[in-house]
Amino acid sequence: MSDKFDVIVIGAGPAGYVAAIRAAQLGLKTAVVDAFVGKDGKAALGGTCLNVGCIPSKALLDSSKQFHNLTHNFKDHGITAENPQIDIGTFIGRKDKIVKQFTGGVTMLFKANKVTSFFGKGKLLKGNEVEVTGNDGTVSKISATNVILASGSVPIELPFAKFDGTHIIDNAGALDLTAVPKRMGVIGAGVIGLELGSVWKRLGADVTVLEALPKFLAVADQDIAKMAAREFAKQGLDIKVNAKVTSAEVKGDEVHIGYTDKDGAAQSLVVDKLLVAVGRRAYTAGLLADDTGVKLDERGRIVVDEHNHTGVDGVWAIGDAVRGPMLAHKGSEEGVMVAELIAGKPGHVNLDTVPWVIYTEPEIAWVGKTEEQLKEEGIPYKTGAFPFAANGRAVAMNEGIGQVKMIAHAETDRILGVHMVGPVVSELIHECVVAMEFKGSSEDLARIVHAHPALSEVVHEAALSVDKRAIHKGN
C-alpha cells in the first residue's frame, strides 16, 4: 500500500470536490479520485456540473438571452440594430473559456488546501481500499480511514434513441452544437430539456418538446407550472404533454420520431437534432467491489442514512449517487456535512428546504411543499400570491411576467412552501429558504422592510397576501 489517507473522495463534482476541500480545511489528509476528461483530452475537475452541466448551460443561456433581447426586446427601450448576427464559434468558445476557468479554479483550490488528486476511475474495495484505474490501464491502490463516494450521475439513455453524438444527443452534445439546427426535438420537459431547448430556440431553432407525463412540470406547483407553460408557448417553444415517444430513427441528416398523443393516436415528428433529456441515474457502475457491504437500492443509488453514512464503517456517499434531489448545491452541502462529521463535528442537511431552480426565461424556482402535495397529505394551508406585473422594478426592466406564491400552515402560519416564476427568481427564492430554515411564518416576511423599488417586494406582497392584506393588488 503506497498511500494512506484520512479521507479519499471518489468523484470531483460539486459534491466530491467540496467534501475534499472541507475535509482538508479540517486538517484531514485528503485525496480525490476522478476520471473526467475535458474537451482538450486532459483531466478536468468539477464533474458534470462544471464541465457539461450547470456552468456551461448558464453561459449559453446568458449569451442566447442577450441575442434574443437584441432581436426581440431592445426595441421597447428604443434600441435598434441592423441585421444582428451570432457567431456560434464565439458563442461556444465563450462557454468553453468559462468552463476552463472554473475547472482550473478547482485545481488551484486543491493545491491551496493540499488535496492530492488521482486521475482515473475509482473502485471501492473491502477495508476502505480504493483501486484506481488510469485511462492508460495502469492500476494502483490507495487506502483511507474514511471513503466518500461521490460518483455523480449520467444521462438516462432510451433503448430506441441511443446517443450517437451527432443527431441524437445528450446534454453535453447540446452544449457543443456547431450550428443552430433548423428543427430541434427534445424528449423530456424537465430542467435540462427546458433550459437547453430555450437556448437554441432563442437563436432561431424550431424547438418541439415531447413530455410523456400528462402535466407540464408535474414536480412544481401547478399554478406556477401553468403560468410558465403559457409564457413558453408565447415564445414559440412547442411543448406537447402526454406525448410518449416510441421510436427515433436517423435517416440521412434527419431524425424521424414516432410518438403517441393524449388520445393514444400515433404521431410523427422530423427534426435535425434530437436532445434526449429524460432524467439522470446514479453513476454506480463499477464503483463497488462485491464484498464491500455497501448496498444499492432498486434505482442503483447508494443506500445511506440521514447523515449519508452507508452502514459500512468509514464509508459515506453524497450527491447524485444517493437519495434526494439531483442538485449540485444539495450534493455540496452533503459534502460539507460528511467532512465535518468525519472530523468529529456536528453536521446536518435539511432536504426539505433545498431550493429548485430552472434557468429559463422567465426563471422558475421553488422550495418546500406544493399546494398539490399539501392537499394529498391533508395539511391545512392558506395561500397568497402577487404578480410581477404590479411591481415597479419588474415593469421598468420590461420583465413584468410571473408571480410569487406563498403557502403557509392555516393554523400556525409557518411557511410550508414558496413557488415563483419571473425575473431573477433564482435569487429571490433564498430569502424564503432562510425564513423556512428558521421556521418563519408568512407574517415574519410580511413585517420585514423591503427596499423600493426592488423585485423582492413581490415576495413581501405575497407574504402580505397570505392574510389578504397585500397593498398593491386586490385581495
TrEMBL record:
GO terms for molecular function: dihydrolipoyl dehydrogenase (NADH) activity; flavin adenine dinucleotide binding. The active site is a redox-active disulfide bond. Disulfide bonds join C49-C54. It comes from Luteibacter pinisoli. Pfam families: Pyr_redox_2 (PF07992), Pyr_redox_dim (PF02852). One of its GO terms (cellular component) is cytoplasm. Residues 354-463 form the Pyridine nucleotide-disulphide oxidoreductase dimerisation domain. Belongs to the class-I pyridine nucleotide-disulfide oxidoreductase family. This is Dihydrolipoyl dehydrogenase. The keyword Disulfide bond applies. It comes from the Bacteria. The keyword Glycosyltransferase does not apply. Signal peptide: none annotated. Its EC number is 1.8.1.4. Binds 1 FAD per subunit. It is found in: Cytoplasm. Residues 5-335 form the FAD/NAD(P)-binding domain.
